[in-house]
């Protein structure tokens, strides 16, 4: 009987000029992935208020630029674990269709509560992922993340802070609100 290790997404988000950050990431040896369109539908319920619990449950549709065939991910994020980042426990898996996921969530009393659309370019080096996002109605952001287990949290956070400095960014400028919260203001 093996104990399940808690997977953490150690993440920071900063408003920035993504063209400048893209050039800096490439100069640091990051590899650029494909441009992706993403539409996130967040769910909430009357009996279970995930927002008040600082949790998130969403279905993400994503597809590569120029490709109309989408993929769908059901994603759960637990409460943030610190006061300076977006770090949370995260669980996700692919589902056959949006309708299949929505049917299950509706059956549990959860219904769409908001939407976020963005164009995302991902840059990867080792275990660090940088997402450069153009979010509809919000602007441009960089998200820097490392997926780790609880024991690797401090190390991951230190590495992210070091990368931010190399990019000319600062931990003090991080945003802890989700794109959905920013859009609903």
Protein model, in words:
The chain has 185 residues and is an alpha+beta fold. It has four helices and eight strands; from the N terminus they run E-H-E-E-E-E-H-E-E-E-H-H. The protein has an eight-stranded antiparallel β-barrel with strand order 1-5-4-3-2-6-7-8. Strand 6 (110-125) and strand 7 (128-135) form a beta hairpin. The longest helix has 14 residues, at 153-166. The radius of gyration is 17 Å and the shape is globular. The protein starts with 6 loop residues before the first strand and ends with a helix. The mean pLDDT is 93.
What's a quick, concise take on this entry?
This protein is α+β, with helices and mostly antiparallel strands and 185 residues long. It has four helices and eight strands. It has an eight-stranded antiparallel β-barrel.
